[in-house]
């Protein structure tokens, strides 16, 4: 199929209209109700762990992240999004692989590690990214409604753990805050950030800027950190 | 320019179509035609002489609405408008996400309108996967067999041609076709048209993309291959480009009330073109497009005038 796909321009691979895409987000929210309650509580708890008790909660944080990636892969991509986008099955596979990698990293970590407490710029950027992913992302449709993309409503709000984009954002934020986040665990997030950017760009949504920002942060992070010998998440 | 329609052939064409529409009405094969005025532009498939309406409908993007029930019903309304206006050829592909399933949903709601000319594609490099795609497509559309199966963008065309030829010989398929778009791989398309036994070819032709006039359209006419035109509006870009510009006064002479009709009439009046397949998600647009099948068809002189005008914009 790859050979067949390579015959196409980027524009050809946008298989649906913005209307259909944004309605599909609302429909998904409707279908998974009331999972949003659990996801919202998890977001608050995760925010508390990451920003309040990072040093002692690395395993819990890792497990929550893994579950979030697994849900997005299985429920969002493979079960839902694949009905309008046949690439979604591949994305689902990538998300499940990332969930396994995260779990593997959690199990492999033997001693406590630290989400950095120092006031470096990259650490601050990480904290801001986490806050953005957990607490601002779900409300973006309300903020962007009249400015960026017509037709967005609160029903299309994307919550961490249930939707790929905020899950990705929080994961990247945590990586930026972490001293020893293993670089291989950032390959899939980087790849998917690029995919999200392309989709948003092709849909004409200015949320594509968010993904450009994340890619830039990740590249800075990659350039800054030296290869870690200890494979630890936090 | 010798291939353009002349006055005499235009008169013959209109008479033939008026008669054929009446016959179709009488035979009950196009029951909804009663609501539409004649003449009604149909064109023959050269290999068999079967007449099909000159405006069909595509389904890329527009029919990929997934499981959204509201949008599925909205698209069913588009299908209803299409068949009520005498529509026939519906084009889809496994590449178009849920489009085939949504078409199948709509057809079922509408009790499989009799005018349907079902056209889909195989889109894979592997022969066995192609066979599976055809089987799945039949289930999704809810049809026993397709009128036309096309090889999408020439992917694995040699292998699929074997499958499709075999199906046709066994009476499980009426017509075989190949497709391309955006002016891609015209040389290869030309070679296949020259050397293989195909009934249909589909490519892009519109008032801006006119490369096909040079070789593909005359060749199709020579070889007796039916021609389906995709991207008649350049995926809407052509309409957006022209929207703010005035329609020329002479548009009235060919009964065009809007730019989409002007663009479609230019395409279907080419003598080698069998059918254009604009895609739409809106009932009003569908009705506007289908209305192009009525009124006066431009002759060669008028076509030249049309393109000259658009070139100045
Ligand atoms: N290689 C291939 O086999 C191949 C490649 C390309 C296309 N195709 C086939 O050809 C079909 C047509 O091409 P396409 O879909 O790319 O583009 P198209 O038909 O040139 O343009 C479709 C666009 O035009 C708009 N439109 C349609 N009628 C209109 C009207 N009366 N007024 C204003 N806007 C109107 C539609 O918007 P609304 O929804 O708002 O009406 C839609 O966005 C495809 O759907 C597909 O079936 C095949």
How would you describe what is shown here?
The complex is a heterodimer of chains A (234) and B (313). Chain A is an all-alpha fold. Chain A has one domain. Chain A has 10 helices and no strands. The longest helix of chain A is centred in the first third of the chain and has 23 residues. The relative contact order of chain A is 0.15. By secondary structure, chain B is α/β, with parallel strands linked by helices. Chain B has a single domain, classed as NADP-dependent oxidoreductase domain (TIM Barrel), CATH 3.20.20.100. Chain B contains 11 helices and 9 strands. In chain B, strand 6, helix 6 and strand 7 form a beta-alpha-beta unit. Chain B is globular. Chain B starts with 6 loop residues before the first helix and ends with a helix. The complex binds NADP nicotinamide-adenine-dinucleotide phosphate (NAP). The site of NADP nicotinamide-adenine-dinucleotide phosphate has 29 residues of chain B, from helix 10.
What's the SSE blueprint?
The complex is a heterodimer of chains A (234) and B (313).
Chain A: H1 2-5, H2 18-32, H3 35-52, H4 58-80, H5 88-108, H6 121-136, H7 140-144, H8 164-177, H9 187-202, H10 208-224
Helix pairs in contact in A: 3-6, 4-5, 4-8, 6-8, 8-9, 9-10
Chain B: H1 7-27, E1 42-44, E2 51-53, H2 69-84, E3 89-91, H3 99-109, E4 117-122, H4 127-141, E5 148-151, H5 157-169, E6 175-179, H6 186-195, E7 200-204, H7 216-223, E8 226-230, H8 237-243, H9 259-268, E9 275-276, H10 283-290, H11 300-312
Parallel strand pairs in B: 3-4, 4-5, 5-6, 6-7, 7-8, 8-9
Antiparallel strand pairs in B: 1-2
The complex binds NADP nicotinamide-adenine-dinucleotide phosphate (NAP).
Question: How would you summarize what this structure contains?
Answer:
Chain A is mainly α and 234 residues long.
């Amino acid at each position: 199929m790859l050979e067949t796909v390579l015959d196409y321009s980027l524009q050809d691979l946008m298989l649906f209209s913005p209307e259909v895409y944004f309605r599909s987000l609302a429909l998904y929210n409707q279908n998974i109700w009331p999972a949003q309650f659990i996801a919202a509580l998890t977001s608050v708890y995760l925010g508390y762990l990451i920003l309040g008790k990072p040093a002692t909660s690395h395993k819990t944080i890792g497990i929550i992240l893994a579950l979030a990636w697994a849900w997005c892969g299985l429920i969002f991509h493979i079960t839902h999004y694949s009905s309008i986008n046949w690439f979604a099955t591949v994305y689902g596979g990538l998300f499940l692989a990332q969930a396994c990698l995260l779990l593997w990293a959690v199990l492999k970590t033997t001693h406590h590690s630290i989400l950095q407490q120092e006031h470096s710029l990259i650490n601050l950027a990480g904290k801001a990214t986490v806050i953005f992913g957990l607490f601002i992302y779900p409300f973006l449709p309300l903020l962007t409604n009249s400015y960026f993309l017509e037709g967005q409503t609160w029903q299309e709000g994307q919550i961490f753990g249930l939707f790929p984009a905020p899950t990705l954002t929080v994961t990247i934020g945590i990586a930026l805050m972490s001293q020893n986040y293993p670089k291989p665990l950032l390959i899939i997030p980087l790849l998917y950030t690029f995919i999200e950017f392309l989709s948003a760009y092709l849909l004409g949504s200015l949320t594509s800027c968010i993904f450009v920002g994340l890619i830039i942060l990740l590249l800075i992070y990659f350039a800054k950190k030296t290869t870690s010998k200890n494979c630890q998440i936090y | 320019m010798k291939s353009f329609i002349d006055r005499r052939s235009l008169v013959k064409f209109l008479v033939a179509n008026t008669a054929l529409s009446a016959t179709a009405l009488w035979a009950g094969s196009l029951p909804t035609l009663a609501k539409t005025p004649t003449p009604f532009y149909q064109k023959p498939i050269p290999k068999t002489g079967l007449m099909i309406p000159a405006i069909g409908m595509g389904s890329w993007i527009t029919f990929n609405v997934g499981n959204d029930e509201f949008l599925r019903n909205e698209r069913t309304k588009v299908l209803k408008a299409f068949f009520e206006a005498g529509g026939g050829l519906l084009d889809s592909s496994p590449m178009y996400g849920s489009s085939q399933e949504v078409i199948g949903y709509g057809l079922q709601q509408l009790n499989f309108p009799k005018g349907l000319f079902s056209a889909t594609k195989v889109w894979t490099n592997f022969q066995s996967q192609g066979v599976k795609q055809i089987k799945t497509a039949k289930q999704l559309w809810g049809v026993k067999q397709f009128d036309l199966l096309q090889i999408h963008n020439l992917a694995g065309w040699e292998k699929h041609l074997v499958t499709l030829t075999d199906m046709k010989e066994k009476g499980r398929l009426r017509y075989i076709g190949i497709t391309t778009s955006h002016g891609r791989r015209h040389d290869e398309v030309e070679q296949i048209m020259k050397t293989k036994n195909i009934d249909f070819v589909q490519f892009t032709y519109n008032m801006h993309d006119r490369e096909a006039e040079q070789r593909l359209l005359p060749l199709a006419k020579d070889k007796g291959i039916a021609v389906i035109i995709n991207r008649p509006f350049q995926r809407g870009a052509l309409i957006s480009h022209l929207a703010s510009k005035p329609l020329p006064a002479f548009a009235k002479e060919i009964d065009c009330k809007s730019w989409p009709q002007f663009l479609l009439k230019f395409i279907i009046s080419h003598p080698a073109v069998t059918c254009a397949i604009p895609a739409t998600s809106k009932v009003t647009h569908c009705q506007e497009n289908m209305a192009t099948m009525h009124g006066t068809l431009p002759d060669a002189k008028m076509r030249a005038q049309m393109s000259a005008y658009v070139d100045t914009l």
